[in-house]
Specification:
Elements (H helix, E strand, L loop, with lengths): L2 H22 L12 E3 L6 H18 L2 E6 L8 H12 L9 E7 L4 E7 L8 H17 L3 H16 L4 H4 L19 H21 L2 H15 L19 E9 L1
Parallel strand pairs: 1-2, 2-3
Antiparallel strand pairs: 3-4, 4-5
Length: about 260
């Protein structure tokens, strides 16, 4: 390998590593998990937060399912779907062996609301049921400017479903939507972004030795995959913590 070619490979490899680190580093800032109700947007008063916290604690005591309510000042330019499942993973809501977590997310600045459902609860808190809860119990209140009312109504319905009382809502689910269509997300886990970065360096070295159109194509594919990766932020101290659960994008969203 000639001197100029070697320098080009080294510079390209360094650029790739920097891009990988930047993608795997902080791109979204998540709030600290300070409790079962994280009211970053300030939509709830102290009484509302206390009542909701008690209801969510009772739910976990009875079912081991973890439900967290979070209001956000901003979605930071991403979709509520991407933010939601990544926040669930970051907080690790739900039991590790069951992935039994759920989030009720409200982003008033963007007029978005979402019920994010962990892997283990997707068969109970289905996409179709979460859509009904959002459209019938949350959005009507939000459209009136009653955020506490919408949040409390939505939380109550989610708690009913997780507690085994889903029959009233199930009767409203059309047969062809009973399973719900999972909404897509585009993020990649941080570990996968790092792996892609290492693979990319290997591709660069291979291409430096062998060259060819195939190598160029593989490099472009890796770059495109890397650009879809997301990062996170540091976790804050909290008296309440997730149990190690994970999320894959199950749930539904709404807007007003």
């Amino acid at each position: 390998m000639t001197g100029p070619m070697a320098r080009q490979v080294i510079l390209t490899a360094l650029a790739w590593i920097c891009l990988t680190c930047a993608s795997a580093a902080q791109t979204l800032v998540y709030p600290a998990l300070t409790g079962r109700v994280v009211d970053g947007a300030g939509l709830l008063d102290a009484t509302d937060r206390a009542v909701l916290t008690g209801s969510l604690a009772n739910l976990e005591a009875k079912t081991t399912d973890q439900l967290v309510i979070v209001t956000l000042k901003s979605l930071q330019g991403t979709s509520i779907e991407d933010y939601g499942y990544q926040l669930g993973r970051f907080w690790k809501i739900g039991q590790k062996d069951k992935d039994s977590g759920a989030l009720l997310i409200v982003a008033p600045t963007e007029h978005k609301v979402r019920i994010e459902v962990g892997y283990g609860l997707e068969g109970t808190l289905t996409d179709a049921l979460t859509k009904i809860i959002i459209e019938q119990t949350i959005l009507p209140k939000f459209k009136e400017g009653d955020f506490p009312g919408g949040i409390k109504n939505g939380a109550a319905e989610i708690i009913k479903v997780l507690g085994g009382d889903a029959e009233p809502l199930n009767g409203q689910v059309a047969p062809n939507t009973a399973s719900g269509a999972k909404e897509s997300n585009t993020g990649l886990p941080e570990w996968l972004v790092i792996v892609l970065g290492l693979v990319g360096v290997g591709v660069l070295i291979f291409c430096a030795v062998h060259g060819g159109v195939l190598c160029h194509g593989l490099f472009q594919i890796l770059v495109l995959m890397l650009l879809f990766g997301r990062g996170g932020s540091s976790r804050g101290n909290s008296s309440f913590s997730g149990g190690g659960g994970s999320f894959g994008g199950g749930g539904s969203s709404g807007s007003w």
